[in-house]
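Re: weekly structure request thread

Next one in the queue (180 aa):
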Amino acid sequence: MWKKREWNKKKMKSELRKTLIIRSFKLVHLLASVGVFVLSWTLFVNHYGIQSPKRYVLLVYAMYTLAFAYLSRVFNAYLIEYAKPGDIILSLSLAAIISGAVVYMAVSIAWNQWHIPVVGPLYLALQILLNIVWAKLGNRLYYKLYTISSAVVVYRKQADLKRLKDIERFDKKFDITKTL
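Done, posted below.
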């Protein structure tokens, strides 16, 4: 009994470590996305020579961070455990575009001035590039931490399994070891 408890503690520590690695990886992406926004916003403000107090600038950054975190959650952008990298890239990019647009509109309304967002394409390009790199690395990291386990699929009729094999990329995606 003592050995079993000790084994469970080791397993729990291992799972906790893996969870912390994945969560810290997600947090790094959130901070990097905010960093891309900060860079773009600084270029935007400097391009038009807009002077504003530091507390308003920090408020803009906080507004973007909250909007991005919320929309990433709404679009399930950080579910690297379940989604394909393409879906993650799309979700993160959508969250970044909407967050940036909401912050731009809110600040423009508060300033009562509408400036053309000259650095918008740069912001989008950097954000999409960051999302692509992060999704690919996140997918690799997840499958490195959590190895794929084997499963058994049982069918009554041989024709059902043949139909399943006809699905595109089925043989490449799964390793069929035995057919009865």
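The chain has a mean pLDDT of 85. Helices lie at 2-48, 54-74, 85-111, 120-145, 158-165, 170-173.
Next request, please.
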